[in-house]
């Protein structure tokens, strides 16, 4: 029902469940937004300035990627996601603005005033 | 596994810890200002606590966000059987010839006539 052989070649065609993909992506999106806000708060508390903040953002995104893969299971992440690379790079610049907002706000709260 | 009380507790602890880090950083900043020292970096214990609380919060968020679903369309159909789909209660029939096989039914009929 899910997979059928094409005539001629034996390559398997896998049918994906639309609902499950959307559910997984919304869970990941939730985690990513939270991670951007929280790592921005942490960067502000630590008093990072300039490029150190950007490096910290990349570190946060990468560690979130590892945590998601670890939650899905390092060997069977293919059951839950189609592409591992898209999981890392999706919404990178979109979340960067959330990060910068929290970063500057908390930096101002803790270190300036 | 769905979100449990334990994960919400972990999340709360993480947020309290991050708030404590922010308070410590602000206090360190005012200490520097009173002693007219220059800011280079925060004390090491504050930095370590910031990182730990960030990861504790992320662990809590990832578990509260929800579970991943298997994206294969057949994933939730694999454990069902034909009997499950065949079972339609609206089409149940109880007045069929099976009642003639019941001994008490035939004796009751005989008395009536």
UniProtKB/TrEMBL annotation, chain A:
<keyword id="KW-0812">Transmembrane</keyword>
<dbReference type="Pfam" id="PF07019">
    <property type="entry name" value="EMC6"/>
</dbReference>
<dbReference type="InterPro" id="IPR029008">
    <property type="entry name" value="EMC6-like"/>
</dbReference>
<keyword id="KW-1133">Transmembrane helix</keyword>
<keyword id="KW-0472">Membrane</keyword>
<dbReference type="GO" id="GO:0034975">
    <property type="term" value="P:protein folding in endoplasmic reticulum"/>
</dbReference>
<dbReference type="GO" id="GO:0072546">
    <property type="term" value="C:EMC complex"/>
</dbReference>
<comment type="similarity">
    <text>Belongs to the EMC6 family.</text>
</comment>
<dbReference type="InterPro" id="IPR008504">
    <property type="entry name" value="Emc6"/>
</dbReference>
<feature type="transmembrane region" description="Helical">
    <location>
        <begin position="54"/>
        <end position="74"/>
    </location>
</feature>
<feature type="transmembrane region" description="Helical">
    <location>
        <begin position="86"/>
        <end position="110"/>
    </location>
</feature>
<protein>
    <recommendedName>
        <fullName>ER membrane protein complex subunit 6</fullName>
    </recommendedName>
</protein>
<keyword id="KW-0256">Endoplasmic reticulum</keyword>
<dbReference type="GO" id="GO:0000045">
    <property type="term" value="P:autophagosome assembly"/>
</dbReference>
UniProtKB/TrEMBL annotation, chain B:
<dbReference type="InterPro" id="IPR018937">
    <property type="entry name" value="MMgT"/>
</dbReference>
<comment type="subunit">
    <text>Component of the ER membrane protein complex (EMC).</text>
</comment>
<comment type="function">
    <text>Part of the endoplasmic reticulum membrane protein complex (EMC) that enables the energy-independent insertion into endoplasmic reticulum membranes of newly synthesized membrane proteins. May be involved in Mg(2+) transport.</text>
</comment>
<dbReference type="GO" id="GO:0072546">
    <property type="term" value="C:EMC complex"/>
</dbReference>
<dbReference type="GO" id="GO:0005886">
    <property type="term" value="C:plasma membrane"/>
</dbReference>
<keyword id="KW-0967">Endosome</keyword>
<feature type="transmembrane region" description="Helical">
    <location>
        <begin position="40"/>
        <end position="62"/>
    </location>
</feature>
<keyword id="KW-0732">Signal</keyword>
<feature type="signal peptide">
    <location>
        <begin position="1"/>
        <end position="26"/>
    </location>
</feature>
<keyword id="KW-0812">Transmembrane</keyword>
<dbReference type="Pfam" id="PF10270">
    <property type="entry name" value="MMgT"/>
</dbReference>
<keyword id="KW-1133">Transmembrane helix</keyword>
<dbReference type="GO" id="GO:0031901">
    <property type="term" value="C:early endosome membrane"/>
</dbReference>
<keyword id="KW-0472">Membrane</keyword>
<dbReference type="GO" id="GO:0022890">
    <property type="term" value="F:inorganic cation transmembrane transporter activity"/>
</dbReference>
<keyword id="KW-0460">Magnesium</keyword>
<dbReference type="GO" id="GO:0000139">
    <property type="term" value="C:Golgi membrane"/>
</dbReference>
<keyword id="KW-0813">Transport</keyword>
<comment type="similarity">
    <text>Belongs to the membrane magnesium transporter (TC 1.A.67) family.</text>
</comment>
<protein>
    <recommendedName>
        <fullName>Membrane magnesium transporter</fullName>
    </recommendedName>
</protein>
<keyword id="KW-0256">Endoplasmic reticulum</keyword>
<keyword id="KW-0333">Golgi apparatus</keyword>
């Amino acid at each position: 029902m899910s997979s059928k052989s094409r005539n001629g070649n034996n390559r398997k065609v896998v049918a994906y469940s639309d609902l499950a993909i959307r559910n997984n992506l919304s869970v990941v999106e939730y985690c990513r937004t939270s991670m951007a806000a929280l790592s921005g708060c942490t960067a502000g508390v630590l008093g990072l300035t300039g490029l150190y903040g950007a490096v910290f953002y990349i570190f946060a995104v990468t560690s979130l990627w590892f945590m998601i893969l670890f939650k899905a299971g390092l060997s069977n992440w293919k059951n839950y996601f189609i592409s591992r690379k898209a999981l890392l790079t999706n919404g990178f610049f979109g979340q960067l603005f959330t990060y910068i907002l929290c970063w500057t706000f908390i930096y101002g709260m803790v270190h300036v005033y | 596994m769905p979100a449990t009380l334990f994960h919400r507790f972990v999340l709360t602890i993480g947020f309290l810890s991050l708030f404590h880090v922010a308070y410590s950083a602000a206090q360190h900043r005012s200490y520097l200002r009173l002693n007219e020292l220059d800011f280079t970096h925060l004390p090491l214990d504050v930095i370590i606590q910031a990182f730990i609380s960030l990861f504790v919060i992320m662990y809590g968020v990832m578990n509260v966000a929800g579970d991943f679903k298997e994206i294969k369309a057949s994933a939730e159909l694999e454990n069902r059987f034909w009997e499950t789909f065949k079972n339609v209660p609206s089409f149940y029939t109880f007045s069929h010839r099976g009642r003639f096989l019941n001994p008490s039914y035939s004796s009751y009929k005989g008395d009536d006539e």
